[in-house]
Specification:
The protein has four helices and seven strands, in the order αβαββββββαα. By secondary structure, it is α+β, with helices and mostly antiparallel strands. Strands 2-4-5-7-6 form a five-stranded mixed beta barrel. A hairpin with a 4-residue loop joins strand 4 and strand 5. It is elongated. It starts with a helix and ends with a helix.
Length: 154
């Protein structure tokens, strides 16, 4: 009788462990589509990305690059070192301006970032934390902020 209680206890522990493993795997696989990695334009260009991988790119909109072709807006985003072309179909935020910081979410298609969402900064002092950290690491935060501040004052 002692053996059966011990065996039943072991089976319950094994069953509980398997259920926890299954639940963890399910959460991991389901959450995979919701994860968007934040990258600077330099990081985006330097690495190979799957065409179906959701990404975010942040930087300053390059002056003179914003164009509209029907409902599709095109502009370049820079981190001070590299720039990438962004295509966005839809209405850009009211605060979208050349020379100001944005974060775009979408998919890297080799030479163009196809954005599904564009977020614009809310005032002249705002830079996304992720972008600020990356720009500081690359030593270009001051230059990008100065360029943005100059364009705002003009």
């Amino acid at each position: 009788m002692a053996r059966s209680k011990k065996a039943r206890r072991i089976r319950m522990v094994i069953f509980g462990g398997l259920m926890m493993l299954a639940a963890s795997a399910l959460v991991g696989f389901m959450g995979q589509d919701a994860i968007a990695f934040f990258k600077s334009p330099s990081e985006l260009v330097a690495e190979n990305w799957r065409p179906d991988q959701l990404l975010r790119v942040g930087g300053m909109v390059v002056e003179g690059t914003s164009t509209a072709d029907g409902a599709t807006q095109r502009f370049d985003v820079t981190d001070g070192e590299n720039s990438v072309s962004v295509a966005f179909t839809g209405v850009l935020p009211d605060l979208f301006r050349e020379g100001q910081g944005i974060v775009a979410q979408g998919y890297w298609r080799g030479d163009v970032f196809e954005a599904t969402e564009v977020l614009a900064k809310h005032d002249e002092n705002y830079t996304p934390r992720e972008l600020e950290g990356m720009m500081a690491e690359q030593g270009s935060s001051g230059g990008a902020r100065a360029a943005a501040a100059t364009s705002i004052e003009d």
